[in-house]
Design goal:
rod-shaped; mainly alpha
Length: 507
């Protein structure tokens, strides 16, 4: 029982060692798959790329430029700040109120005595009827003044109080304190108009200073509303124009001199209080720009089948990089996933060991035979890599894999069952090493073809005949496989290589 356990342990060790060395035989010297080269905009193309199918690529740079141009063509949207307009008009009203306050007449009760004006027109004439003669109070008879009736004129001192404005210096000082921001010339001109209006009113005419205020407000309103308002960078120009070329005023009740004075002073007054009331409506502008950009369709660049997308060494554009990537032309260099390769190789060894246990029991019960079987398997893993040293541009050389050797060895060293069993790892290893389905099928057939010829040989002559027979079978077998997988341009070369391969394997 202990001997059986010892043999079982040895078999497990031999199988484990076989797995490890088989994986190493297939992995050592192989490069891991490399990441595809990264193509960068503005970098040189590593090769010439041709379109494998018709495609269209969005030119993002041209599309963005067209959309930006569409945004720039959208006019900036503005809105009129009503609060600023109302503030300017309120300042003008306040100034006229200040002028009225400065030019307010002095109440009669506060006038000095010498300020009371005696109106000469206020004297009256009266006619008195003298008393009759004999009456009391009659003048003496014979007086020069005696008459039936005598008229006398007496001056009755009737007084009227006339409204009087404060001294001019006082009015100017009050207005300067109330409206220091207004130029002195404008303040004095407005005081002159207020005094003229006051004189016209006291002379029995109509007051016109209120009309001057209305005219100033109307001009200010028109200026602030023209073209939707005044931009901040246009305020200076509008102020300059109001001062140099004031708008005409419609005040027919004024004298010519007062009208000229009113026109210049109103223009300068409006210029003084003028503010920018036209502001950018950023939200509306952004909305229109976004709509204009969205209306621009994407600009695409097309490539037809066979057209060169980029020449080798050419500086790549974003469109070329996108086209190359979208067509999958930038493939990584051939490589192998080493971990997966080792795993498949190990599983192939375990599968062959399982079949050895089930179908070749006499071979399995002897640990030495198991070790020998493992050695042959490791040699098979190394042998299938022989085509790697042959020219890579000649695919027919893949059929030089010496798979038939292991058919000969299996039949000579073991038995026909074990020899046929070796075809499993040999085919798997060939597929892992070459990646070619046709060569894998050939390897499986080449490992099994010598078995029926070699298993019954008893002399060297019979062995040589078995080798020739195996070569005669493998040549057409390989030619048919190459014809099926590679076409009819190389089948005859494959047949020759397979024939020579079988002969060399037999030696």
């Amino acid at each position: 029982m202990s001997r059986y356990r010892y043999a079982g342990a040895l078999r497990l060790v031999f199988i484990g060692v076989t797995v490890v060395f088989t994986a190493l035989a297939l992995v050592v010297g192989r490069g891991a798959p490399e990441a595809p080269p990264v193509l960068g905009v503005g970098e040189a193309s590593p090769q010439t790329f041709f379109a494998t199918q018709s495609t269209e690529v969005v030119d993002a740079a041209a599309t963005d430029a067209a959309r930006e141009q569409a945004r720039l063509q959208v006019e900036t949207q503005y809105f009129q700040d009503v609060q600023v307009t109302n503030a300017v008009l309120a300042d003008i009203r306040q100034f006229f109120a200040d002028v009225r306050g400065a030019a307010e007449p002095i109440p009669p009760a506060e006038l000095p005595v010498d300020a009371v004006v005696i109106d000469p027109a206020a004297t009256t004439s009266s006619t008195q009827e003298l008393p009759a003669e004999g009456d009391e109070g009659a003048p003496p008879e014979g007086d020069d003044q005696a008459a039936a009736a005598q008229t006398t004129t007496t001056t009755v001192p009737v007084t009227t109080t006339t409204l009087v404005l404060p001294p001019r210096e006082e009015m100017s000082a009050v207005l300067e304190d109330a409206a220091p921001q207004v130029p002195p010339a404008v303040r004095e001109a407005m005081l002159d108009l207020a005094m003229s209006s006051f004189e016209a009113e006291t002379a029995g005419g109509s007051e016109f200073f209120g009309e001057v205020e209305l005219e100033a407000l109307e001009i200010a309103r028109e200026v602030l509303q023209e073209d939707g308002g005044i931009l901040a960078d246009a305020v200076d120009d509008v102020q300059r124009q109001l001062i140099t070329t004031p708008p005409p005023v419609l005040l027919p009740q004024l004298t010519f001199e007062d009208r000229v004075l009113a026109r210049s002073s109103i223009g300068a007054l409006v210029a003084t209080f003028l503010q920018a009331n036209k502001r950018i409506d950023q939200a509306a502008t952004d909305e229109l720009q976004a709509a204009a950009a969205q209306a621009v369709e994407e600009i695409t660049v097309g490539f037809v089948v066979g057209e060169a997308i980029a020449e080798e060494g050419e500086r790549l554009t974003e469109v070329q990089v996108e086209a190359i990537q979208s067509l999958g032309l930038l493939q990584p260099e051939e490589g192998t996933r080493l971990e997966a390769l080792a795993a498949v190789a190990g599983l192939a060894v375990l599968l062959a060991s399982f079949f050895l246990w089930r179908v070749a029991t006499p071979q399995w019960e002897d640990p030495k035979r198991v070790a020998l079987f493992g050695l042959v398997v490791v040699l098979a893993a190394a042998a299938v890599r022989i085509p790697e040293i042959l020219p890579a541009d000649r695919p027919e050389f893949l059929y030089a894999v010496p798979a038939a050797v292991f058919g000969y060895l299996g039949a000579i060293l073991f038995d026909s069952r074990t020899a046929a069993l070796l075809a499993i790892p040999v085919a798997v290893f060939t597929g892992l090493a070459t990646g070619d389905v046709g060569v894998t099928l050939f390897a499986a057939g080449a490992a099994m073809a010598p078995v029926p010829f070699v298993s019954a040989v008893s002399s060297r002559r019979q062995l040589r005949l078995a080798v020739l027979s195996s070569a005669a079978v493998l040549a057409p077998f390989a030619a048919a496989i190459a014809w099926f997988f590679q076409g009819d341009d190389m089948w005859w070369r494959v047949a020759i290589i397979a024939f020579v391969n079988a002969l060399v394997s037999g030696v």
